Amino acid sequence: MKSYVKVMLGLIGTGMLFSCSGKNEENFKYSIDEFADIEVLRYQVPGWDELTLKQKEYVYDLSEAAKWGRDIFWDQNCSYNLQIRKVLENILENYSGDRSSADYQDFLVYAKRVFFSSGIHHHYGEQKILPGCTKDYFGSLMGAAGCSDSLKATLLPVIFDPNILSTRRCQDSGKDLVAESAGNFYEGVTQAEAEKFYAGMEDPNDPRPISYGLNSKLVKRNGKICEDVWKVDGLYGPAIAKIVEWLQKASEAAENDAQKAIIAKLVDYYKTGDLRKWDEYNIAWLQDTVSQVDFVNGFVEDYEDPLNRKASWEAIVDFKDQAASKRTEIISENAQWFEENSPIDPRFRKKHVKGVSAKVINVACLAGDEYPPTAIGINLPNADWIRKEYGSKSVTIANITEAYDLAAQEHPNSILNEFGWDGNEKEQCRKYSTITDNLHTDLHECLGHASGQLMPGVSPGALKEYSSTLEEARADLFALYFLADPKMVELGLLQSGDEYKAEYMDYIRNGMMTQLCRIELGSKVTEAHMQNRKLIAEWCYEKGRDAKVIEKKVREGKTYFVINDFNALRGLFGNLLSEIQRIKSEGDYEAGKNLVLKYGVDIDYDLHKEVLDRYSALDLKPYKGFVNPDIVPVKNESGEIIDYRLEYCDDFIKQCLEYGKEYSAL
């Protein structure tokens, strides 16, 4: 599971810096490009110079393995994506016409948007991205770049017709979610057929079920439904073979035997496609809590599949921030206390919380579903039975959080100044938001996702298309509830015990209003993390309406949501956590569906328009993502590598084109 940042909307970067350890370059410029609704940032890698040569080599090899998965993620998002990307690359590299014209600049913005989203659908809103230039002009660019008439006839309708492959992931419960989704996880099958296929595989009495369908495309050929497995000699084979090649190189530079064994299990899984081996790898990976360098690499998260079964490919390469990890270690050491004091039915609590580990990291490479937009926290593995028997590993990504924070400080305007109710609210949030937001991420990833248990016989996929939203809501509510607990002061994680109010104000403001700036007027909320935040905020607003726990106020024609009773709001968070945990533990699909559809999807038109109008005046971009630093081997006169240095890219399109040349296997 991942935690996506609220700092995208300027909720962090309000005055108090959360620093990661290590030396940063002075006068480092974080923001390098802006277009459409997007800002592209750079991140620094503190602590790089303190790594040994062998550790740097290990990071380099793992990063090469990560970059070779890029084509896989593009193809998973839509079957036409790789063709379209190669056309864009061809035009950008070879077009010799007028690049200063308005038409070409519109084309350039489209190309950047597609590169940022790893495909032709918006990375967050999931609707198809349409070019600003005309179809005829786009066709002329393709012709000038040497594209054939047949290729133009194939791709131009896909690019320009809003009714063709209009949504990457359909969430309209009245439609066939598989047939109406542009994502490339299914071919020739209906939703009903896919659900029946996997229902026939699953054994509800298996205490250790594999994640059926996680690493395959479900297709119908000659009337028969079967899986095309993603493995070395299967679908995506050429790209996976390069990933394996670099993983094996990395193994030679590993810090210890545990890392070598972990890589061996991952390679075995990539070669066979055997999901039992994926479980074995995950168990070995989560048990390695001593290595400084770490990584995620594989088909991991199922957010992009409308049935929440198929996993997108992703990777990160990172190393531990020793100083900042002290707070996450405190949290993980007290996991049993948090579980025992969770406001849920005791039947749904784990009697013995096992293997919960947490650390703060600095990333050196982002890839696949983590590039360019990325999470700030990750908790893995996702299999419920592994979490119950072996535990989980949680990370908070310090240098990404820091980059968001410092990039926000480079901009003169902020969401808080516009949407905060009064001076007291703004002062509290400026003073404490960075602290409490990072603690929220720690609690969400380290304990929230790791808490609770399924009842015997309940399938992990029982909540179907609503599972991601409800799981993120469950983890958020766990964090919100415990942020206000006196235990946080007792553990030394907060000082006065009132700091949590900043997170409560930020969360309600974001869930009720500010996150709506990411959505086109008249649209619905479709992304799981946004649905989760809206669900929580709207539910608490409604349930506390009579007592005015959260009060809607209007001043000079502008709307605000103000918390009047923080203790009562904490109680509402606890009540909703209890219900969502019940829904998950019992697999109550109808109750989960009703919660999401009632509170997490529909948007009040007038409020939405107001938010968009107010936000547009701030000249901010609601979405942010990153370019990676380049890791460059340094050789002596005899050709021996004596170091690896970081070079910080300052050109988004340049990096995209370089990746297209260097890491394209499909």
What is the tally of helical segments? 24
Q: Which regions contain 5 or more consecutive residues with pLDDT less than 50?
A: 6-23
Terminal CA distance: 27 Å
Tertiary shape: globular
Oligomer: single chain
Going across the biggest sheet, name each strand in turn: 1-10-11-9-8-7
The helix content is: 40-55%
How would you characterize the largest beta sheet?
6 strands, mixed
Structural class: alpha+beta
Query: How many DSSP E strands?
Result: 16
Strand content: 5-15%
**Rg from alpha-carbon coordinates:** 24 Å
Mean model confidence by pLDDT = 93
Characterization of this structure:
- The chain is of the alpha+beta class and 666 residues long.
- 45% of the residues lie in helices and 15% in strands.
- The protein has 24 helices and 16 strands.
- It has helices spanning 53-67, 70-77, 81-94, 102-117, 135-144, 149-160, 191-199, 237-252, 257-272, 275-287, 325-333, 335-340, 384-389, 398-409, 415-419, 423-448, 467-483, 487-490, 500-512, 528-543, 566-586, 589-599, 605-616, 652-662, and strands spanning 2-3, 31-35, 38-42, 186-187, 216-221, 224-229, 293-301, 312-320, 356-368, 377-380, 392-397, 550-555, 558-563, 623-627, 629-635, 641-648.
- The strands form 5 sheets. Strands 1-10-11-9-8-7 form a 6-stranded mixed sheet, sandwiched between helices.
- A hairpin with a 5-residue loop joins strand 15 (629-635) and strand 16.
- Helix 16 packs across helix 17 and helix 16 (423-448) packs across helix 19.
- It is globular.
- 52% of the residues are buried.
- Residues 6-23 have low confidence and may be disordered.
